[in-house]
Amino acid sequence: MIDSSAEENRVVVRSLRRSFGEGANVVHILNGLALTAQTGELVALYGPSGSGKTTLLNLIGALDRPNEGSITVCGQDILKMSDRARTQFRRRQIGFVFQNYTLLPTYSAAENIDLVLRLWGIGYFERRRRIRSALEAVGLSAWASHVPNELSGGQRQRVAIARALALRAPLVLADEPTSGLDTRTARRVMSLFRGVAQAQGTTFLIVSHDPMITDYVDSAYDLQDGRLVRRAANDQDSPAEQSLQLQLEVVHD
Ligand SMILES: Nc1ncnc2c1ncn2[C@@H]1O[C@H](COP(=O)(O)OP(=O)(O)OP(=O)(O)O)[C@@H](O)[C@H]1O
Ligand SMILES: [Mg+2]
Question: For residue 92, which phi and psi values (nearest 5 degrees)?
């Protein structure tokens, strides 16, 4: 039983600022952003293209540093760690599903997963067991020995998902993890995330444009003007999506 408040709040982000460029060309992408995600919580992050969703995940995943603010993951202030400690922390504590999948082209699906498990120092038989069950969970058992070029876009995306889950890290950062999937497969992936969150207490931050995701998450936010605005539980569609739906309904009438 996990009972310390640091563990309950798996991700705590405060007053986060991230700008790019200099002088007259500076653009403020994240502007005093705050976010708290608890152990086992599934969080959806919505926002228009270019609003800073990937930027936010990169900061929480310790791949980038903010201009200002604090980021605590699993009770640890990731901005105060040495580079070496941060790299170790990232490898063990965070499963990434990157927006562009980042699979190594000459490695098979199984080998791509194996690599992250080896970096963590997991033994051979345990790695094999985890690879098998992760590929099975995403419906790719038959594709373990295929390289990314021999897989469809959606299959590659599912390998990236399997890789993030095989690590069994306490935090998974998933950047549009269902963008290349049909609705049925996307729902299967979201059910899988829910099951993993329940069974292992994994926290998921899921960036998406897909309204379906809200059926599976505990909370949903919109990234607007560099900050997160929480959606009410019974109002999961943003005004922009509602207006789009309205337009579509009109078109279909
Ligand atoms: N390293 C960088 N240098 C300069 N600008 C950057 C950098 N990284 C991101 N940006 C800018 O920050 C903004 C937000 O980018 P980001 O990738 O976070 O958007 P996003 O919300 O993930 O969009 P999408 O839905 O299209 O993936 C963009 O305008 C982008 O050009
Ligand atoms: Mg992005």
Answer: -95, -35
* First-to-final CA distance of the chain: 53
How distant is the alpha carbon of residue 236 from its chain centre?
A: 19
pLDDT tens string 53-106: 999 999 999 999 999 999 999 999 999 999 999 999 998 899 999 988 899 999
Q: Give kind and range of the element (H or E) at residue 3.
A: none
Q: Which residue has the tokens 């876009």?
A: 153
Where along the chain do its domains lie? 37-63+87-248
249: left (phi over 0), alpha (psi -120 to 50) or beta: alpha
- Ligand 2 ion: residues within 5 Å (CB): 53-54, 99
Residue 38 and residue 9: Cα distance in Å, rounded?
4
Helix, strand and coil content of the chain, in percent to the nearest 5, comes to 45, 25, 30
Enumerate residues lining ligand 1, CB below 6 A: 20, 29, 47, 49-55, 99
**How many Cα neighbours within 13 Å face the side chain of 3?**
1
Do you know the residue count of the chain? 253
- Residue 241's pLDDT is 52
Model confidence, pTM: 0.89
Predicted local confidence at residue 99, as pLDDT: 85
Pocket perturbation via mutation, ligand 1, pick of 22, 26, 49, 54 by most ligand atoms within 8 A of CB: 54
- Give the pLDDT confidence score for residue 221 in this predicted structure: 98
Report whether CATH 3.40.640.10 matches the domain 37-63+87-248.
no
The whole-number average pLDDT for the span 165-187 is 95
Q: Which atom of ligand 1 is nearest to the CA of 58?
A: 18
